[in-house]
Write a structure and sequence with these properties.
Number of helices of chain A: 15
Order of helices and strands of chain A: HHHEHHEHEHHHHHEHEHHH
Number of strands of chain A: 5
Strand order of the largest sheet of chain A: 2-1-3-4-5
Radius of gyration of chain A: 20 Å
Helix content of chain A: 40-55%
Oligomer: homodimer
Largest sheet of chain A: 5 strands, parallel
Distance between the termini of chain A: 56 Å
Chain lengths: 334, 334
């Protein structure tokens, strides 16, 4: 999808937009269904949102979960309580069906695709060097773009990578302002001293670079699985597939792009609000209201996978309810 | 289940309690699953909650939605923008599969049972007379108790009844204190003048009665579908089936019982926080954290039905994930 960094920049300048007429038709349809107007709350909003992207009717049958894994040189700085080997071990766990995302995908009938991205070649330690070369960044973006199934109704985006909440917090600070301490959280389970140390590592990375373009930010401070999620979100946008974002890392991957082009999130829903500290702040900056708030902080696309149930409920009520006229139900003030 | 009002009182004094040992075992099991401890947030809490009630293993395959409908004499006071005939019309809509709860039950594979309760005989207008006789109250409680399927893994509780947010607000004020205005909301769509009028109707009902026992409160100020929900919650408790409560009306039905015996809610989860004004306040009094907050305010069990997805996710992750040992994943600080 992206042969050069210019292709990426060009895409952000000319993305498909939502179909406003389909949205209006969906809003009118909602008014005719056998319920007080507005009483399905955000389910109604989601139906209208989907109508802006999906043709000819909204649907949530075929939901794809794309899960990208990467390793990070910054783990050398002691930013995670888990060893970097866990990334590959968890990928094996995904492949054998033993992880949380497997259980959720199975329970909800979601198609899960796992993409480990050169786990044997961690990115550079961002506190002292750039994460990737330009070619590596393009490769990661394209791996993400290629992962999207053009037949999916909705794509849910997730990640796994020991050390990647450090990368995520760094991308947020570099793109949206603030220090390491503004964005760093406990990740998989750091104590408060660990978070302070992590924040200092982030501040070193920030000090090493100046103001960055979206592409440069992903290249110099990012990670393969984060760039891949950006690629997947862009590929979905190109073919008008709505996206369910997962938690802090998945959203943070979008921060550099959002800073350059806020409309990139117009086809995205925030699946949940993670308990990871920076996520609430980031969702506020994105002006995205999460569908769920269940104090989860696992990653793996788990929050997005769970939120597919909400999207399905929105589609089911929008498409399967009777109207006041068809059901012979009196409308208000009758 | 309840031949006399004493049977009801006696039940509240001697209810089954959660199995604390099963809860502890579930907590230990959660620690061994391939995820950072606590990272599934409320899914872990729900798994432990279910373990306190379900034997030998937690499960959420067979979920029953019981939906009770009733009519209310208080609609004569102009407390709803919809005519009372809509209750029967919506019951027909449920039976023909055209309502929101049908779409949700179908999408999520839930068994829906609709129980209209003497719709041709509205309860007394509570602003001037008692809602029911003692026998009518017992009949409604027993209709609810009889509706619970002993083979259900989880029972979701809902209601439909034009005028019943007035009944609900009255039960809250009578049981937990406060005035009509503290608990009244827009219901199906009153404007602010309508809410003020509704609050005055509630205050007349409150002034008519003094301090009441739980049973008397349901009899004098309640409604058939609200008493039926209480009966269903009690019957589920008797056979250790966890309950998903729906929104304001379903929760308000429990307020008189909660005021007498707060432990009645120990086997209940709050499916969602309704946009109906009194619900947030009521959930705080109950000390129940809702699973969802999607600005819904429809009733019909719709919020509880949607929350079954969260319960299923909790069961799926608890029962189907690998452990660190079985998956060969390194635990933290390894």
């Amino acid at each position: 999808m992206f042969r050069t960094r210019s292709d990426f920049e060009d895409f952000l300048g000319a993305m498909p937009q939502p179909d406003m007429r389909s949205r209006e038709e969906a809003m009118l349809h909602q008014q005719q269904l056998t319920k007080p107007p507005g009483s399905l709350g955000r389910l109604e909003e989601i139906a209208v949102f989907l109508a802006g992207w999906q043709k000819p009717a909204i649907r949530a049958d075929h939901i794809q979960v794309v899960l990208f894994a990467g390793n990070h040189g910054v783990t050398k700085q002691g930013v995670s309580p888990y060893p970097a080997e866990v990334t590959a071990q968890m990928v094996a766990n995904f492949e054998h069906g033993g992880a949380a995302i497997n259980a959720l995908a199975n329970a909800f009938g979601l198609q899960l695709f796992v993409h480990p991205l050169e786990l044997e070649r961690p990115t550079g330690d961002i506190s002292v060097e750039d994460a990737m070369t330009e070619d590596e960044t393009l490769a990661a973006l394209n791996a993400g773009a290629d992962a999207v199934d053009a037949n999916a109704d909705i794509v849910a985006i997730g990640e796994m990578g020991i050390g990647n909440t450090t990368i995520a917090a760094t991308l947020c600070a570099a793109s949206l302002g603030g220090t390491g301490l503004d964005w760093a959280g406990a990740g998989t389970g750091l104590d408060s001293a660990g978070v302070v140390h992590k924040a200092k590592v982030i501040d070193r990375a920030l000090a090493r670079v100046g103001s960055l373009t979206a592409f440069d930010c992903l290249q110099r401070l990012g990670g393969r699985e984060l760039a891949a999620m950006v690629g997947a979100v862009c590929a979905a946008r190109a073919i008008r597939i709505p996206v369910l974002l997962d938690g802090f890392v998945a959203c943070a991957a979008m921060a550099p792009v959002f800073a350059r082009q806020p409309a990139i999130l117009d086809h995205c829903l925030a699946g949940h609000r993670s308990a990871e500290r920076g996520h609430a702040r980031l969702l506020e900056r994105f002006d995205l209201k999460p569908l769920l708030d269940l104090e989860m902080r696992l990653g793996e696309g788990s929050g997005a996978a769970l939120a597919t149930a909400i999207a399905r409920a929105a589609v089911a009520t929008h498409t399967r309810m009777a109207t006041f006229a068809s059901a012979g139900v009196s409308d208000r003030d009758a």
